[in-house]
Amino acid sequence: MVQVSSAAVTHPGLRREGNEDAFRARPDLGLFIVADGMGGHEAGEVASGLTVTMVESFISDTRDADLNQTWPFPYEVARSLEANRLIAAFRLANRRVASAISADPALKGMATTAAAILLGPEGHLHVAHVGDSRVYLLRHSRLTQITNDHSWVSEQVRAGVLTDSDAQRHPWRNVVTRAISGGDDPEVEVADVAIETGDLIMICSDGLSSVVPLEAIEAILNSRTLDPGPSDPAPLALEATASALIDAANASGGPDNITVVLVRVDVR
Q1: Of 119, 140, 146, 149, whose Cβ has the fewest other Cβ atoms within 10 Å?
Q2: What CATH number has the domain bearing residue 57?
Q3: Which of 12-26, 47-61, 120-134, 214-228 has the lowest mean pLDDT?
Q4: Separation of alpha carbons 58 and 97, rounded Å
Q5: What is the spatial distance between Cα 56 and Cα 32, in angstroms, rounded to a whole number?
Q6: Contact at 8 Å (CB) between 261 and 5?
Q7: Class of residue 258 by CB neighbours under 10 A (exposed 0-12, middle 13-18, buried 19+)
Q8: DSSP E strands, the chain
Q9: Contact at 8 Å (CB) between 265 and 199?
Q10: How many CB atoms are located within 10 Å of the residue 14 CB?
Q11: What's the structural domain count of the chain?
């Protein structure tokens, strides 16, 4: 059995008038997702909002799914049921974005990145993402990035062409190579991770990860707010920690919208 405490905080940052990020936190479904919209003129907000709504809807509709259920896409037998649910949900979101663009040409060019986790009852964390929104795991005070950014600079770093410092300064650092944009069905990257009691999962948009170093994020996550006393319930401690991360991003200039979702798990 998996018990969950969670908190989610979003902020437009210091240089944007609107907030094109969207999120859902559904502990009852084991679903948590962050989407970072792109396109400007509120179109990015539309793409991210449609995406989180569609993912939430499909995961809810398939909460009692089994292998005999009809799926909207070919079922990948090598993957878990939960991974297939996430992949299908992301692809349905992509088609929903396509429908919105078809109905309103002013939305042409909108897109969104997305990162989601689905907690399985068997004690596994199922992760899916498209783009450069990220999922991290804090275990035994050490922070690890679970997802690999689908961005041009990150792919060059993994290929050994660029260093991490080069990537942070590169003029193409904001160019993503995968997104939910209404085109062909996106290639959704998925991963399964065994959960341990006390694990803390963080999902965030790049408004945090692009300006606050991993070591600084780790330090904030390891702060005393994650060790609440009897008068400081865990959800409030998590919310304070998420807010501290937002503050750190804004202290670094706040150039983009910032969204942080924290999920703490206890396996019994």
Answers
A1: 140
A2: 3.60.40.10
A3: 214-228
A4: 15
A5: 9
A6: no
A7: buried
A8: 2-11, 21-26, 31-38, 111-119, 124-130, 134-139, 142-145, 189-194, 200-204, 258-267
A9: yes
A10: 14
A11: 1
Alpha helices in 22-119 (DSSP H): 43-61, 81-103
Expressed as residue numbers, the domain containing 64 is 2-267
- Among 104, 114, 115, 131, which residue's Cα sits nearest to residue 41? 104
Question: At CA 255, angle to CA 253 and CA 259, rounded to 5?
Answer: 105
159: burial class by Cβ within 10 Å (0-12, 13-18, 19+)? exposed
The token pair at 119 is 């907690």
Burial of residue 164 (number of CB atoms within 10 Å: 0-12, 13-18, 19+): exposed
Averaged pLDDT score across all residues of the chain: 88
Instruction: Give the pair of three-digit tokens for residue 183.
Output: 């085109």
Residue range 174-230, pLDDT digits in tens = 678 999 999 999 999 999 999 999 999 999 999 999 999 999 999 999 985 555 444
What are the structure tokens assigned to 248, written together?
């750190």
Tokens representing residue 102 in the block: 């078809």
Cα(43)–Cα(176) distance, rounded to whole angstroms?
17
pLDDT in tens, 102-124: 999 999 999 999 999 999 877 78
Output the furthest CA–CA distance in the chain (Å, rounded): 54
User: What's the CA gap between 149 and 131, in Å, rounded?
Assistant: 6
Select from 192, 177, 182, 196 the least CA-distant residue to 265: 196
3-state DSSP assignment of residue 130: strand
Length of the chain: 268
